[in-house]
């Protein structure tokens, strides 16, 4: 049987109820008072329908994720990762957008999305180096280079050294360099 989804507060109330009452007593109370009798720690259970409440007690539940501004989320259907602004978080949490297919992004997905945004801010694809770009070698702040030519997964600098693109980071795209004169 599939687990039902409840809010974090409802999950806490269910656990509190199971710790202090029998499941049978909780169900009887829910039926007798038509779901509006719980108070205190159990109050969040009042808006659960009986079927969902019983399933949560006996088959378990999943906590519905709550999303807030600046969270990174991933759509499990499309694989798209995005950073939430305030309005997107509001629409998702208030069910204007279905969140059943959304989850919090993994650290790897967040890293990839930040990298995609960085390159997009320079109107490029990820790791799209161009001749004249200035790069630095990761973990060695002393080594800077200028891209002379680009291959599939590496660049060659002005000194003829070849660098794997996973070992370098873009410092300044050629389009933003102030030392390059277009008339030359």
Annotation keywords:
184 residues; alpha+beta; 3 domains; three-stranded antiparallel β-sheet; 23% strand
Largest sheet: 5 strands, antiparallel
Number of helices: 5
Q: Which strand order do you get reading across the main beta sheet?
A: 9-8-7-6-10
Indicate the multimeric state: single chain
How many distinct domains? 3
Instruction: Give the averaged pLDDT, no decimals.
Output: 83
Structural class: alpha+beta
Gap from first CA to last CA: 72 Å
Q: What is the total tally of β strands?
A: 10
Helical coverage, percent range:
25-40%
Shape: rod-shaped
Radius of gyration in whole Å, from Cα? 27 Å
Beta percentage is: 15-25%
Spans of at least 5 consecutive residues whose pLDDT stays below 50 are none
Write the element-wise H/E pattern from the N-terminal end onward.
EHHHEEEHEHEEEEE
Structure notes:
The chain has helices spanning 8-20, 23-32, 50-58, 86-93, 107-120, and strands at residues 4-6, 61-63, 72-75, 81-83, 102-104, 134-137, 140-150, 154-157, 162-164, 168-172. It has 184 residues and is of the alpha+beta class. It has a five-stranded antiparallel beta sheet with strand order 9-8-7-6-10, with no helix packed on it. A hairpin with a 4-residue loop joins strand 8 (154-157) and strand 9 (162-164). It is rod-shaped.
Short description:
This protein has 184 residues and is an alpha+beta fold. The protein contains 5 helices and 10 strands.
Question: Would you spell out the secondary-structure blueprint of this structure?
Answer:
Elements: E1 4-6, H1 8-20, H2 23-32, H3 50-58, E2 61-63, E3 72-75, E4 81-83, H4 86-93, E5 102-104, H5 107-120, E6 134-137, E7 140-150, E8 154-157, E9 162-164, E10 168-172
Parallel strand pairs: 1-2
Antiparallel strand pairs: 3-4, 3-5, 6-7, 6-10, 7-8, 8-9
Helix pairs in contact: 2-3
């Amino acid at each position: 049987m599939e687990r039902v989804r409840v809010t974090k507060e409802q999950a806490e109330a269910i656990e509190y109820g199971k710790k202090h009452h029998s499941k049978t007593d909780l169900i009887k109370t829910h039926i007798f008072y038509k779901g509006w009798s719980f108070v205190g720690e159990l109050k969040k259970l009042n808006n659960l329908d009986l079927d969902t409440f019983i399933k949560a007690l006996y088959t378990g539940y999943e906590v519905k994720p709550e999303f807030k501004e600046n969270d990174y989320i991933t759509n499990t259907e499309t694989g798209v990762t995005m950073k939430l602004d305030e309005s997107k978080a509001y629409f998702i949490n208030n069910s204007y957008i279905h969140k059943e297919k959304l989850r919090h992004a993994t650290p790897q997905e967040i890293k990839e999305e930040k990298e995609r945004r960085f390159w997009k801010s320079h109107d490029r694809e990820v790791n799209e180096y161009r001749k004249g770009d200035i790069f630095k070698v990761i973990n060695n702040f002393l080594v800077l280079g200028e891209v002379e030519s680009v291959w599939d997964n590496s660049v060659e600098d002005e000194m003829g050294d070849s660098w794997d693109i996973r070992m370098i980071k873009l410092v300044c795209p050629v389009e933003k360099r102030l030392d390059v004169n277009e008339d030359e």
